Amino acid sequence: MQSPIKKLAVLTSGGDSPGMNAAIRSVVRTCAYMDVEVMAIYRGYQGMIEGDFVLFNARSVNNIINKGGTILKSARCQEFRTPEGRKKAHEQLTRAGIDGFVVIGGDGSFRGASIFHKEFGTPVIGIPGTIDNDIFGTQYTLGFDTALNTVVEAIDKIRDTASSHSRLFFVEVMGRDVGHIALNAGVAAGAEEILIPEENLGLDRLLDSLKRSKKSGKSSSIVVVAEGDKTGKNVFELKEYVEKNLPVYDVRVSVLGHIQRGGVPTAFDRVLASRMGVRAVEGILEGKTNLMVGIMDNQIVFTPIDEAIKGHTKIDRELIRVSDIMTI
Ligand code: ADP
């Protein structure tokens, strides 16, 4: 059956993540392959409201698969949270003859897309792009694998200096309210302790563990702390607490910050982005709407956007166990 959709749009919205460009490329090339026109929307929903659109073709996305960030720019747009702002956006899409869109972003972007879909019936598919890996309906979000590798590389470097000076380092990593980056990076980089929001380790257990570590002959230690961890108020307070209660340790703090968001996407993220982009366009042409593409057991699957927004991802308990065993 011929799809009534003749022209699609693609945008990136909210926090950027490595792999977004690979997803843009995939959406654009799949549209070209399917003989559907495709418009790029710049600056997320802000650009949608302002009509910041450019007609793309297969060649418009040359040489971007290997680039971090997003060539379309991203934005946080307050106006899109208002019915008036969304009405303006709808008028711009109608004027440009756009029949539906693919939004690459996080749960905020999906919330906006879902409300827009309910108000105007515009077909929409979401591609999860965030380094935090905190979106229900997919085992991996775009950018998570790249961010994880960036963090592991950074901790490896920190370990070099930590061991030269017999120091204890608290390394804070991103992840808002979830500990996926912290847990995976902690295991991969051989951290002595991993503090994540899902498990409140407690300060006493942390001290016990550090004491044990010292006793067992370890001269330096790395503790990975997710930014949303609730054990201490923040990494600097953790440092003060440990210095006060375990003066044997010379403690330092490293907050990795925005380096985790940038960089060349890994092969995993590029492949995932390419697969998700293809299915997003195929899905919307098949009449699917208000869905998010995700990956489960290496299969590309669709989840209703409303479930993706409401649901919570679970921390991998087996990894916690592995980490406990490794830090003997
Ligand atoms: P992310 O997509 O990374 O979670 P944000 O939470 O900043 O990032 O959301 C991106 C954009 O999505 C916001 O700037 C806003 O334009 C839009 N958005 C988020 N929540 C809503 C909402 N409840 N209603 C309408 N638009 C929203």
TrEMBL record:
Keyword Metal-binding: yes
Binding site for Mg(2+): D107
Catalytic reactions of this protein: beta-D-fructose 6-phosphate + ATP = beta-D-fructose 1,6-bisphosphate + ADP + H(+)
Pathway(s): Carbohydrate degradation; glycolysis; D-glyceraldehyde 3-phosphate and glycerone phosphate from D-glucose: step 3/4
Major place of residence: cytoplasm
Active-site residues, record numbering mapped to chain: D132 (proton acceptor)
Binding site for ATP: G15, R76, C77, G106, D107, G108, S109
Residue span(s) of domain Phosphofructokinase: 7-283
Binding-site positions, substrate: T130, I131, D132, R167, M174, G175, R176, E227, R252, H258, I259, Q260, R261
SUPFAM superfamilies tied to this protein: Phosphofructokinase
Gene3D superfamilies found in the cross-reference section: 3.40.50.450, Phosphofructokinase domain
Binding site for ADP: R25, S26, V27, V28, R29, R159, G190, A191, E192, K218, S219, S220
Activity: how regulated: Allosterically activated by ADP and other diphosphonucleosides, and allosterically inhibited by phosphoenolpyruvate.
Top-rank lineage group of the source organism: Bacteria
Gene Ontology MF terms in the entry: 6-phosphofructokinase activity
Keyword Nucleotide-binding: yes
Family: Belongs to the phosphofructokinase type A (PFKA) family. ATP-dependent PFK group I subfamily. Prokaryotic clade 'B1' sub-subfamily.
Function summary: Catalyzes the phosphorylation of D-fructose 6-phosphate to fructose 1,6-bisphosphate by ATP, the first committing step of glycolysis.
Record text on subunit structure and interactions: Homotetramer.
HAMAP family: Phosphofructokinase_I_B1
Record's protein name: ATP-dependent 6-phosphofructokinase
Organism: Robiginitalea marina
